[in-house]
UniProtKB/TrEMBL annotation:
Residues 142-308 form the HhH-GPD domain. Residues 5-132 form the DNA-3-methyladenine glycosylase AlkA N-terminal domain. This is DNA-3-methyladenine glycosylase II. It catalyses: Hydrolysis of alkylated DNA, releasing 3-methyladenine, 3-methylguanine, 7-methylguanine and 7-methyladenine. Its EC number is 3.2.2.21. It comes from Aciditerrimonas ferrireducens. It comes from the Bacteria. The lineage of its organism: Bacteria, Bacillati, Actinomycetota, Acidimicrobiia, Acidimicrobiales. The keyword DNA repair applies. Residues 316-337 are annotated as: Disordered. Keywords: DNA damage, DNA repair.
Length: 337
């Protein structure tokens, strides 16, 4: 087995466990693995799959100004080269929000007691993104009009059937790249449980990306209106899916998906909102919290996961304490998204 390792210094506050849980969303996610201290994921780097393991560790100095993420990149055969390690670092920095400064968010939360309590409870959460915009889009399509639990089962099956493999013991399946799905037929995805419409949408987008007719990653360099327009023009992509991709694929943190039923329920419950909460009410809250509506969304996701008990296998990381992470939880009472 070939491998290379490197470290990334991350300004506090940062908690890998909370960030990974916001990324994986449910404990049966087999693509993004978390054992309480280590995050594992297969990434396709230049179409060659590698296994990435990341662990938050104690810095080698007292009262650190940053925390440290230790990363190991592995594969069968020769060691990954410097270019591959650099690409893995770039992807991880985006996926785990390592370069995002949340100081303005914490100042915003100080104006609202409930928001302040939520932010403090999950202090160190960074807003995650999927490894690619294509992955975000497929996630959105898979979860349309289904519970998140069922949607992630579909995604697990998709990765198991068509995702890249590194052939190392215990390695999870990787998420399929567009070229791997472009050659499939709707019946192939139907066997996994996808509806005919969802299967057709995923394959059509995969074929456009693989052929070069569609550059989803280029949307990161456009304004939000343009990105939204392009997404809404794609087959099977409506308002909820477009906003989901804006937030989880493009990192547009002001986006609070207004048609997200789970988010609506969480907002109504946590903030004790009166009556029905619809799209316009969510949009009003997003304007009040601008440009951090998406950050509130992730915090409420964790609040639900904690109340459901899913964060029990999670580490406690005390910024500036010099203590290494443990596999114990801070004592949150576990809820549903």
């Amino acid at each position: 087995m070939g491998k290379v390792s490197f470290e990334v210094e991350v300004p506090p506050p940062f908690r890998l466990d909370l960030t990974v849980w916001a990324l994986r969303r449910r404990p049966h996610n087999t693509i993004d693995l978390w054992d309480g201290t280590t995050y594992q994921r297969v990434l396709a780097v230049d179409s060659a799959p590698v296994l990435v393991s990341a662990r938050q560790v104690r810095p080698n100095r007292p009262a650190p100004a940053s925390t440290v993420l230790r990363v190991v990149v592995s594969r069968r055969g020769a060691d990954p080269d410097e270019a591959e390690a650099t690409e893995v670092r770039r992807i991880l920095e985006a996926m785990l929000g390592l370069g995002i400064d949340l100081s303005r968010f914490y100042k915003l939360t100080a104006r609202d007691e409930r928001l302040a309590n939520l932010a403090e409870r999950f202090r160190g959460l960074r807003p995650p993104r999927f490894a690619s915009v294509f992955e975000a889009l497929v996630n959105a399509v898979a979860c349309q009009q289904l519970s998140l639990t069922v949607g992630i089962h579909l995604l697990d099956r998709l990765a198991g059937a068509f995702g890249p493999e590194v052939k190392l013991r215990g390695a999870p399946p990787g998420f399929p790249v567009p070229g791997q799905l472009a050659s499939t037929e709707p019946t192939d995805l139907r066997r996994l449980g996808f509806s005919r419409a969802k299967a057709s949408s995923i394959i059509e987008v995969a074929r456009r990306v693989a052929s070069g007719d569609l550059d989803l990653e280029a949307l990161a360099r456009t304004d939000e209106k343009t990105a939204r327009t392009v997404l809404l023009s794609l087959p099977g992509i409506g308002r909820w899916s477009a906003e989901y991709v804006l937030l989880r694929g493009l990192g547009r943190l002001g986006t609070l998906p207004g048609d997200d039923v789970g988010a609506r329920n969480s907002l109504r419950r946590y903030f004790e909102l009166p009556g029905k909460v619809g799209y316009e009410e969510i949009a009003s809250l997003a304007r009040r919290w601008w440009p951090f509506g998406g950050i509130v969304y992730f915090h409420l996701l964790l609040e639900g996961l904690a109340r459901d008990g899913h964060l029990s296998n999670s580490m406690t990381w005390r910024e500036g304490s010099g203590q290494a992470p443990s596999a114990t939880q801070r004592g949150e009472r576990p809820a549903t998204e």
